[in-house]
Amino acid sequence: MIRYLFQRLLYILPVLLGISCITFALMHLTPGDPAEIILRADGIKPTTAAIEVTRHTLGLDGPVYIQYGHWLSRVLHLDLGSSYSSGRPVLTEILSRFPATSLLAICGIIVALLLAVPLGILSALYPDRLIDRLGRVFALLSVSMPGYWLSLLLIYYGAVKLRLFPLMGMEGGSSLVLPSLALGFGMAGVYIRLIRASMLEALGQLYIKAARGRGMREWSVIGRHAFRNALLPSLTLLGVQIGGLLGGSVIVETVFAWPGIGRYAVEAIFAKDYIVIQGYVLLMAVVVVLVNLIVDVGCLLLDPRIRLR
C-alpha cells in the first residue's frame, strides 16, 4: 500500500506541471488585453502609454516563457500571485471561498445519495416493476433537465411563490436548501442507473446464492454482500464528481449568487484576470488528483480482489 501511494504521488507532479503549462499558454492565447480591461474598470482611458505602463507593472511585457518561469517559481513557494482586479492574494481569496463551496458540495452529494441509493437498490430488487419504472423516469428527468433551468424553477417556486427559502446568497441554513436540491437532483439520475446495473450484476453472482444458501437474512445479503460490491463503480464516479464540485459548481453558484469558488472563477474570466484563473485551475487540479487518490485507496480497501491483483 505504501509503495502504491508513493507511485501515485510521483505521478501527480508531471500531471500538475502539464496542467499549469497548458493553462498558462491558453490564457495568453485568448483575445483581449488584461491591462486594457483593468484601465477601463478603473475609469482610465486606455491609451497606448497607459497600457504599456500597466503591462509593465503587472509583469506582462516580457516573453511568455519568462512570465511562466516567474509564476512557477512563486507557486513553488505557495504564492499564486495577486489578482489584477482586486490586488488581493489569489490563494487567500480561493481559501476564503472554499468553505462555502465545500458545504454546498457536501449537501448536494447527500441529496443525490438520499435519492439515488434507495431508488437504485429497489429498482434492482424489483426489476420491471412499478418502482423500477418510476426510478427510470426520475433518472431520465435528472440527467436531461438543465441545471440552470432547475435552479430557476426552484427559485421561482421555493423563494418567490411560496417564500420558504431565501432568494439568493448565503444566509443561514435555509439558504442551502435550494442550491443543494438543484445540485443533488442533477447528479442523482446517473447514480440511480449505475447502482441499479451494479446491483443486478452483483445479485446474479454465485457468492450471493451461496450466502442465501447458508440461511443469511435477506437484508444482510443485500447490504453486506451485494451492495458493497455494487458500490465500487459509484464510488469511482463519486470521486470524479467530488473533485469537480469542490472546484466550484459554476452554474448553481452563479444562479444562486453563492459566494463560492465557481462564482469567483466566472468573475475572473469576465475580468480577464489571468493570475486568478491560473491559480484556480492549478489548485483545483490538486484537489481533483488528491480526491481521486483517496477514492482509489477506498476501492482497494473495499474489494480484496483489487489488492490481490
TrEMBL record:
Keyword list, A-Z: Cell membrane, Ion transport, Membrane, Nickel, Nickel transport, Transmembrane, Transmembrane helix, Transport
GO molecular function, one term: nickel cation transmembrane transporter activity
CC terms in the record's Gene Ontology section: plasma membrane
Membrane topology reported for the UniProt record: Multi-pass membrane protein
Residues passing through the membrane, by range: 9-29, 103-125, 137-157, 177-195, 235-259, 279-302
Record note on quaternary structure: The complex is composed of two ATP-binding proteins (NikD and NikE), two transmembrane proteins (NikB and NikC) and a solute-binding protein (NikA).
Protein name: Nickel import system permease protein NikB
Organism in which the protein naturally occurs: Paenibacillus agri
